[in-house]
Write a structure and sequence with these properties.
alpha/beta, 2 domains, eight-stranded parallel barrel
């Protein structure tokens, strides 16, 4: 499966900045205009991606209308962070096509994905294969997913689970302590997880300050998802300022991290048994993604919705005709 537009955008931003801020809007807690205004403040403050989703209630009309309103106000990718098969809307650019790696129930590992795959394909939004790992305390998402929570003290278990996710095909790994977690996971756990991965790694849960964001990025995370830290700010100016300070801290730590990473030529000399020295074999340059500015194709979505409505109307007419014919036969 080829990378979609949103996934290419993520890789391009990481190559340039070394870290991303992903702002989460939960339509159940921030519906309609309220959620759209918060998303706009986040985008203006420097959020790289707007995530939309939640564990409870983020579906149906509330999800559709809120996401559409957000789309009209921001010009960054909107990625769905689904809580179930109902958390899908055509007004987003992409969806975390997630499986909960440490759930005790097969539903969250494969069944819900089977239910959701045809819907994602019909809507034409880009799926991003995502391995999702729930850490303690887990909060609502841990309870709903019936997760075998990974303790913050066991970075080795988190790393092994993340590695399994990548081997199973995940192109993004997310570890989440749960919405409303009192504090983020320790740097040791973040470092352990990132040390085994070659795909982008995002941390979520408990990160509320620029200082905490700096520590998480320095420990190795490629991005931080923030939701609860923005939910309780009624003043949109304060939301914007908070996002701006966290975004600045993430970008600063990310660029420092990029500087400290060895180049491909240097790596080839460190591990000569596995990679030919650069004087014998020069590694090709990494491809750079020229991602165009995000523009939402409203016409395509409206056309799909109109076609779907026509199909429903035709089915309704068929049903009425069938009912009339059936009643005439009985007479």
């Amino acid at each position: 499966m080829k990378m979609g537009k949103a996934e290419r955008y993520i890789h391009e931003k990481l190559e340039r900045d070394g870290g991303l801020l992903l702002a989460l809007i939960d339509p159940d807690k921030q519906p309609f205009e309220k959620g759209a205004k918060v998303a706009e403040a986040c985008a203006e403050g420097g959020a790289d991606v707007i995530l939309v989703g939640g564990s409870i209630g983020a579906q149906g009309l509330i999800l559709d209308k809120t996401t559409k309103m957000i789309r009209e106000r921001v010009n960054v990718p909107i990625i769905l962070f689904p809580g179930n098969v109902g958390t899908i809307t055509p007004y987003a650019d992409a969806v975390y096509f997630m499986y909960v790696l440490n759930s005790r129930e097969v539903y969250w590992v494969s069944t819900v994905q089977i239910q959701g795959a045809p819907v994602v394909k019909r809507m034409g939004i880009d799926p991003i294969p995502t391995g999702y790992i729930i850490l303690e305390p887990g909060k609502a998402v841990g309870w709903i997913s019936n997760a075998n929570l990974i303790p913050h003290s066991r970075g080795d278990l988190a790393a092994a689970t993340a590695l399994a996710g990548e081997y199973m095909g995940a192109r993004i790994i997310v570890t989440d302590s749960g919405s409303g977690a009192e504090h983020p996971a320790p740097p040791e756990l973040v470092r352990a997880v990132k040390s085994v991965l070659t795909v982008p790694y995002f941390y979520a849960g408990g990160c509320r300050t620029a200082e905490q964001a700096t520590g998480i990025i320095k420990a190795g995370a490629d991005g931080i998802q923030v939701g609860t830290a923005l939910e309780f700010e009624a003043d949109l100016t304060k939301v914007k300022e908070k996002v701006k300070s966290m975004s600045h801290a993430i970008k600063e730590a990310g660029r420092e991290k990029l500087k400290s990473q060895p180049k491909y030529e240097e790596r080839s000399l460190i591990w000569p048994l596995f990679r030919a020295p650069s004087r014998l074999f020069k590694m090709p340059a990494m491809p750079k993604f020229n991602v165009p500015k995000f523009e939402f194709k409203r016409e395509q979505i409206e056309q799909k919705l109109a076609e779907h409505k026509k199909i429903q109307q035709i089915e309704a007419i068929k049903a009425r005709v069938h009912a009339k014919l059936k009643s005439k036969k009985r007479k």
